[in-house]
Amino acid sequence: MNGSPVSPPVSYIEPLFRPPSEANSLILQVTNGCSWNRCTFCEMYIDPQKQFKPKSETLLLEEIVRCGQQLSGVRRVFLGDGDAMVLSFRRLKTILEAIRTHLPGVTRVSAYALPSNLKHKTVEELQSLRDLGLTLIYVGAESGDDEVLRCIDKGETFQSTVDGLLKARQAGIKTSVMLINGLGGVRMSEQHARASAKLINAVQPEYLATLVLFSRRGNRRVSEGFGGNFTQLDQRQLFQEMEMFLSDLRLTGTIFRSDHASNFLVLKGVLNRDLDAMLTQLRTAIETPERVFLRQDYQRGL
User: Fold this and answer.
1) pLDDT tens digits along 117-139
2) Is there a contact between 212 and 267 (Cβ–Cβ < 8 Å)?
3) Among 12, 69, 202, 297, which is least packed, fewest CB within 10 Å?
4) Do the beta carbons of residue 257 and residue 209 sit within 8 Å?
5) Dist CA 273 CA 16 (whole Å)
6) Span 139-153, pLDDT tens digits
7) pTM of the entire structure?
8) Residue 225, Cα to own-chain centre: how many angstroms?
C-alpha cells in the first residue's frame, strides 16, 4: 500500500446524540457530554466516558480541515454534544470561521443549547455567530412549570428559558424547542401542560417538538426528585395532557412535530393552523383509541 494512511476526518467519544432532523448532517463533537448533566430524566451523558470536556481547539480545527479535504457535498453541520453553546464566543467564532473556510458548501450550522448558555452571550455576539452560519439552536425546555423544573433539577426556570429564547430570536437565530409529555407525573400534569403552553406562546419558536417521558434504566431518579410522589402517566392521560397543552397554544406559524419514537400518537402540522385537526386526533385517541393508529410498545423501540 503506497503512501501514508489517511486519518478519518473526525473522531467521536460514543455514544453520540443528535436531533432527528440532523440525520444527514456532519456532526462535529466540539464538546464531550453536557456541562450541566444533572437533569434527573436524562440518560444521554451518564456513562463514565461522557464526562464533560471541550475538545481541544487544535484537534477540532484539524478535523474541520480533514472534513474539507475528504468529504464532499456537506451542507449542514451539527455541533455536539449536549451544549456546544457553553463554549466561549471566541471559540465558537473560530470554529464557525473554520467551517466557512474549509466547508464552503455548508448552508446551516446548528447546536443544542441550554438557556443559561445564552445568558452569558450578548445579542451582538449571537448575531455575529448567526452571520457566520449558526442559524438554528435546539433548546430542551422540557417544561414551563417552575415546580416541575425544580423537581427534575433542570437548572432553569420559566423566565430564564424565555429570556434565552427571546435573546436568540433577537439575534436572528431560529429556535427549536423540545418539551416532555408526562414530565410532571399525574400530580403535576395540568400545571406542566398549562405552563408549558404559556412558555411557548411567549417565545413563538420556529419549531416545536414533544416526546414522552421514558427511561431505559427506570424512573428512580425522576421519582426521587418529586420526593417519591411520582406516578407516570398512562397512555390516555398522556393524550389528555397533550390536549390541554395544545388547546392553550396561540402560535403563528410554528412547525410542530410529535413523532419521536417515544410517542404513541404521531402528530404533525403547523400551529395554530392545524390545531383543530390535531385536537380531533387526540380526542379520538382518548375516547375511541381503536379508531386511530397508535404505536405499540414494540414499535416504539424503547
Assistant:
1) 999 999 999 999 999 999 999 99
2) no
3) 297
4) yes
5) 35
6) 999 999 999 999 999
7) 0.94
8) 22
Q: Answer left, alpha or beta for residue 278, where phi above 0 means left and psi between -120 and 50 means alpha.
A: alpha
Q: How many CA atoms lie within 13 A of 169 on its CB side?
A: 16
Q: What is the pLDDT of residues 186-244, one digit of tens each?
A: 999 999 999 999 999 999 999 999 999 987 777 899 999 999 999 999 999 999 999 99
